[in-house]
């Protein structure tokens, strides 16, 4: 049921391996009558993955030099295919509606290509794993499609803000913001107790537009006394300048695709 | 970032392995100075996993007898820990609100333990993988927490029904149902084109209560000309008899935990 690009270990148990871990194994090879990749290439790929995740060159097998940082950046880009797959789908399947609303319902909204989301989650999770988030905060419903697989990869709980109170909520944090897309003021609510003062919170969402929604989430995080560590989104509408609006928070903002303009129903992505 | 219980192969590529596949490798062992499991046990576990997923005893290494079906059932139960983890959390963390509403917001609603959801998804996906679904249909927002990881495991797209139309929807299927929990009539909408006549649709949701919501989804599937293949839920409120209400559809209904009664704020689970 799973597909592996690189496989390192036999693991049986439920231990926490995110923060630290030991692994003492010799690298061995299966006698395979069908190979899609050479042995050397396999080892290099595996080491790239490990170096990428743990930022540690000790995984390099003896006799192979540790890669220079520029190599790693280059290798990382090759390791992940989420951003290029997403850009491709936006150009092929996103539609521009009146008021320049970008309709992505064919692949990442009410119809979700979860294989695509999984690849995107790998790439975004990798960009923030070294900042060691303890929780992911997103907004229901559309943010969940990327936040859920990222929470699995980063091994942290997922909290989502709702746009309305439910009857199970008694005590909650609330922040309001203006939605341009829907041309109205909106409320976001998060139950108290879902965020705590020692949390390092990564904000994850499908879109970054003018940044007012993320700003509301940041106010909720501040209200809870927690620490925000960054903002990860699938698609950034660069022309709405959300990144600039949020710059005062001095947080890393990462997107996998940036729309620079929408002209006559045509979507132009940043190169 | 991943944890493996059993590892079979080195795989590089994007091929479809869900429906069929060939794998010709000798089983080899890493020279490990730390082992959490014996070699024989490791092979048996791996074979159980493969037999469990593909229902095929050919994976047994030579000299080891194929397990009897009763063994497999027993082994399968041990393979998955989702149901027992979920039952444990319900007993420890679910609260009973007025009108006997079960509040699960501490672990599978607005605060989501995605590691728990991942384990539950493995167990539910396994129960339906042999029915070869081509799509998962759920209801926003709360159904997504289990439907998203199941879609990744079953390698199928995920479609969710919304409780209100959005501005990107032009042509859609709609069905209404009565929600007891919220004491009102509700609408579910799914864009036309998200389901097609050759789809085999697995309905996935967080709760099965009286079954009226799942019945609405089944009417939408029928409206689209697609074929429903089953219903998978995390928690079944057995006392609301949803299973009986839906029995006319003659579909497999699987839940990981069944609440038989709620007395004085105490939740009683089926043994």
UniProtKB/TrEMBL annotation, chains A, B:
The chain crosses the membrane at residues 136-160. SUPFAM superfamilies: PRTase-like (SSF53271). CDD domains: PRTases_typeI. GO terms for molecular function: glycosyltransferase activity. The keyword Methyltransferase does not apply. It comes from the Eukaryota. Keywords: Glycosyltransferase, Membrane, Purine salvage, Transferase, Transmembrane, Transmembrane helix. Residues 117-238 form the Phosphoribosyltransferase domain. The keyword Ribonucleoprotein does not apply. InterPro entries: PRTase-like, PRTase_dom, Pur/Pyrimidine_PRTase. GO terms for biological process: purine ribonucleoside salvage. PANTHER family: HYPOXANTHINE/GUANINE PHOSPHORIBOSYLTRANSFERASE (PTHR43864), XANTHINE PHOSPHORIBOSYLTRANSFERASE (PTHR43864:SF1). This is Xanthine phosphoribosyltransferase. It comes from Tribonema minus.
